[in-house]
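Standup notes
- HV: blocked on the assembly model, inputs below
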Amino acid sequence: MKLQSKILAFTIAILSLATLSPAAEIRIGIAAAVSGPIAKYGVPIKNGFTLAAEEINARGGIKGSKIELIVEDEQAKKEEAINVFKKFIFKDKVLAIFGPTLSNSAFASDPIANAQKTVVFGTSNTVEGITAIGPYVFRNSVAEADILPKVISVAKRKLGLKKVAVLYGNDDSFTKSGYDVFKRAIEAEALQVLTTETFAKGDIDFSAQLTKIKSLNPDVIICSAFVEEGANILLQGRKLGIPERIRFIGGNGFNSPKLMEIAGKAAEGSISGSPWFIDDPNARNQKFVRAYSSKFGQPPDQFSAQAYDALYIMAEGIKAAKLTGNLEKDRTAVRDALAMVKGFQGVGGKFSFNENRDAEQKGRVLVIKNGKFSLYSE
Amino acid sequence: MGEFLAATWYTYNTLLYTVLVNGLLALSIYLTLACGQLSLGNAAFMGMGAYTAAILTMKASAPFGLALAAGGALPALVALIIGIPTLRLSGVYLAMATLGFGEVVRVAFLNLSITGGSLGLNGVPAKTELWHLVLVLGVLIYSLVKLRGSRFGRAWEAINEDETAAAVMGIRTTFYKVWAFAAGAFIAGVAGGLNAHFTFFISPREYGFEFAVDILTFAILGGTQTFWGPLVGSTILTVLPELLRFMGPYRLAINGLILLLVVIYLPNGIVSRNTFKKKADRG
Amino acid sequence: MFLQQLANALALGSVYALFALGFTLIFGVLEIITLAHGTIFMVGAFAGLVAVTRLHLGIGAAIFMAMLAAGALGWLIDLVAVRPLRKRSFHHLAPMIATIGCAMVITSVFQGLFGAEAYRFPFDFFPTTAYVLGSIQLTLLQLIIIAVSFGFMMIIIFLLHKTKWGTAVRAVAENRRTAALLGIPVDRVYQITSFTASALGGAAGILTGLSFNTLHTFMGVPMLHRGVAIVILGGMGDIRGAVLGGLILGFSEIMSVAYLSSDFRDAISFGLLFLILLVRPAGIFGKTGERKV
């Protein structure tokens, strides 16, 4: 019983503290999964936001007002995402929300932000249907639907592809929706599918699938996976003797520097697509890569880059909006201004929102050569 | 003041709904524990209920009450069918069989197109209101109080105490065990349907091994000697992460530590048979 | 292709068997459903990683360190979480909850130390030579894992049945109170068994990490799920059962992917488990201890 009364005392203390929050500058809520297995995406996302906010504040903030980021852990659980969003909207009274990390959480929490007329801006939600939730839902995470078809057609042209094998994770919406896009692109390019194999998230052994694929001798192996599974697939595939001339084409999981970190030489020749890649020589990106690497001790990945760009995009929107101090009106003003952002120069290239508040950003087709990402085709 | 209350309600009402749903789930597993059965299938039954109810409201525009009833009925039916052969097992073996069953169900969710596969079901209409949850929980608690003194309650207690002796005394053990199993499945299914209709989205991963163990933890931590135990356990464990939010990165560790301390110092659960008795009555 | 798939099944099954060996000792012999064994597996892997990358030790020393670290952690868990419960009467599932609490704390600590991302052993640390025999190919590491699983199995069986310590362990498993009355130091037996079982888990961790190149804080979770299934399938506490169960699971997973449908892999594995339990309610080698009147 003593324990319970201690917990009760804590609760009262916290609740009363919360009502004493000081007057806001520009308060923005970040809902990210910074604990649990999804933290490997949530933490880079949080880092990207943190870096961008620091840079903007160092230059005087947005029209003189500093940005205050309120970061909450939504643990990649949908109920937590809902609770965090509600706290941001009703308690912290933020101007806008970024996140959550997973599309599945977004489906649960974004309707709440939308109903409360508060902008929710996803930087890592790639599944179809997110922005369809409502006019307050935005994202800059380029949907696989916009990049993968280009990757397939470029690869087909350059490598003369005819028959393919497909391997994808069927128990996660991220890898499954990537597969759906690949499937449509494969059909559009009239490629013959020799076999479609699946695996589950967290799997470490792909020998059965790869042995089967090897025996069918495809021209290329198309893979929709997270980077850990992708790297293992590459390593085990090569170890089983799949020759280098049979390349791997990957979705979003393959454009991470982590792929080379784990797979090493086995990653050579892999093809993927992304608007952003770490070795993009443009000045803004190189500055970002250096600043991120020195601040966080490891190189940025697509998640950090998209978060970084997202905060800058949001800053553009807030700059253009007329803020009156009335929270309700301001949230709507930010939404309207954000929707008009066009031609923003991000680390991933020129960015605009299309009429569905989805990302319009040129996807580049990348290939791994000598341990670095390089442009396979523009 | 009014604004503060309104803001507090809007901030925490989903948490409250989750507490009530978890209370239902904890009670659903209590039913099986009360007659000595360790079932880890209630997360899967919850999932069945959630998908059934959501599909009915989304695709067939069914009224909410009907969808919930169907969401309870389908898992109960499945429980009846698999219960009869499965409940011959006992202890950890039963737990494992139910866990295995849960995995099969999860894979079914992943591969059927009507459930949306790994993409889940998005856009479940928001129909659950506070009174739904309170009503269902209230009816359940009332039923449990009534059952305690009935032949069901006494049969379950006898089976829990010593199944072989109970059988020898003429109690139809299989009948009572399957009944508890199916009733638990019904409740879990209804809980799933209620949960789906305030979270907008459901997917297979939510109804797997991890959550099944969580439900069991609610009940054991709270204490399985009375039905108040699971309610207390589920409430504390649902609210705890929210309370610990301010601890940031240490949240998981503190949560684990609290779990550890509670179970060591209160190994029969927070609420035991003696908790409500006056000091003089305690044996 | 069939022979290669068979080889794949043997290799994967041995990985599972190695994990299940330690698990079944705790599970079956001490009758504790420990859900912390996945974190012990992970700790062994990371201990090995640190041994190699920071202390620049060789493979043998790294495995030793992994087993030592994991074993020490297992002993600590017994001391802190399970022993206090032995002193009181408790619900038979209370130790399980205690191990869940331990797992949460350990996971949190390691996530703080290593983050949630994936690590791998240095590229040239261990030779990746593959041995080819006809149409079958197995790497050196895979062969080592197969050998180690069977080796440990024999060693543990020998220890359990031919040594005084083993007899003590089996006595405690049979009936704790009687064993105490017979003068067997029950607490010591629990401690040593926890240490040994966890050391085995640690060995499984480092060998798996080395062979599959994915070390991360949550690497033990899928192993734990499978471990529970294997231990019960083979019969709790039965060492041969653990190895056989691991092989059966590996075989089922590989073959369902190769010849049925990879979509239904887990349904097939667990469906198989379900069916086997209906026929053999205490696992393949288990003793039901059923009371029939």
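- HV (later): unblocked. Chain A has a mean pLDDT of 89. The first strand of chain A starts at residue 26 and ends at 32.
- Next: hand off to the docking folks.
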